[in-house]
Known about the structure:
8 helices, 10 strands, 32% helix, alpha/beta, globular
Amino acid sequence: xxxxxxxxFATSRALATALSGKIAQTLGTAIDRDGSxxxxxxxxxxPRQLFQILSMEQIDWTKVTVTLVxxxxxPPSHERSNHRLVxxxxxQNAAAYADFLPLYTPNTTPEDAAVQxxxxxxxxxxxxxxxxxxxxxxxxxxxxxxxxEQLDAVTDPNQSASIMAAFDxxxxxARLTMTQPFIRKAxxxxxxxxxxxxxxxxxxxxxxxxxxxLPVRAILTKTQQPIQIYWAP
Length: 233
């Protein structure tokens, strides 16, 4: 597989503007080709500015479905919900017309919620056109955490499930996460990171070593097209 391609920017604003344009172009191409587009985004503080800019891109959002790379097993009203983050910062302005497919289901277990979420995503009948990943300073991406008992399963290249339950030993909430094979098949995969510390983590992850130490290794060189890394200080 091809090595990642680095896109470096002087400021987070410049990064967000460039990446927003790239996403809009990718989604527009998918709409022209397939009549619809499917995008998965990540949570955290890093993508907020990107979401705000992307929400104003003039594409046919009525033909776009937005879902999540991963989610905490909490309701949308919870302050740590990725659903809440996306609703607040992305699903507004022009992007208010997009469909949103949540991963969380109330009144069930994380494992059953994962099965239900996978069924809904799979029923769309298409691969992701765009996956936007984040990364923690511990090297996790999606909800693939070091020391997680589910890490081998969710990063298994032969995993048949598109979404699974996973647990971060350092956090109270269970997680729902897309698996490595499902993300790997996306038309475009972007790793959006900011700060020198995360840049150093990626450089370490590109060297040989176990996925268990830096789970982002499971995706960096294993996508259909070279993963695009968007970085700003």
